[in-house]
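Report of the visiting student (M.T.), summer placement. My assignment was to run the structure pipeline on a short list of targets and document each run. The first record concerns Putative transcriptional repressor for ribose metabolism (GalR/LacI family).
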Amino acid sequence: MNSHLKRVTRSDVAKEAGTSVAVVSYVINGGPRPVAEATRQRVLAAIKKIGYRPNNIAKALVSGTTQSYGLILPDISNPFLSSVAYALQQEAFKHGQVLLPGDSGDNRTREKELINNLLNRQIDGLLYTSVDRHPYIDLIQASGTPCVMLDWVNADLNVSAIRVNERLAAFKVTQHLIQHGYRDIAIICGPRIMLNTQDRLSGWSDALEQANLTVREEWIFSTEYTRQGGYEATLRMLKGKRPRALFASNELQAFGCLRALAEHRLTVPDDIALVCFNATQQSLFNVPSLTAVRQPIDKMAQTAIEILRTWNGKAQEREFEFELQIGESCGCGLEQS
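After the run finished, the structure tokens were exported:
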């Protein structure tokens, strides 16, 4: 191996500074013994000159902290989940922590592998959204690693969790369509086996039933939480009796819906009014802008990181108020945006 590729050690620093390895360690770790200022400056100058970098893995073994959190999300390419990851990363960095993200790709086997990988890295905490609200809590709790679920889970699991009430949010955004006077309201939802799909579907049907409107099974279009899913579901919808309004249960589905409607020369909201769930900045800048449920991502990120930082072993559940972001897609004018 060439000498310039050799890893620089504390012994090299000690030799350069003309002192002992122990003194170098005292300077790097800030103790436990005091070091004369002149000697400390020589050590720091030597570190800078020869490019020494502390071995953080070894340091972690001694200190019991790696200054890193793990993050597992089901699909980080989803703009909403990307915005969640960004907010968590920014908040973790404020407190000197590095965020190690993992994308399970909506696959439970991969999700478990990611958890094991992160736990093996001795992370200080885990931020976690399971593929379908059936998290591997036993695995995490057996490791003693603090964990915050970024979604609601069964209270019997005794795990910290943050969320918005998705059923209520779906109810409110569907109710907004009803308040416009729309009566024929369909839904594009996720896979019906998924618990978050069931929450959003229930909120939609709650709003219809409260307004004495018929919940029509043929106007429930289940698909993937993707643009392609929304596009294909809308094409299926257009083959039958056309609804006057539509609730897409995530933003990507709404974008796919808009594409399918445009191909059939149908406009939003004139021909079909549209609202969606989990808005990002993209909803605001879309034409038309989308009326949508918006979660307080920054506040949720701050709370999640704070729970990890102040971990005391007790499960904490925090529910946040959602916002109904009014756009043009429901029929509200620009002056109401």
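The chain is about 45% helix and 15% strand. The longest helix spans residues 79-94. I thank the supervising group for their guidance throughout the placement.
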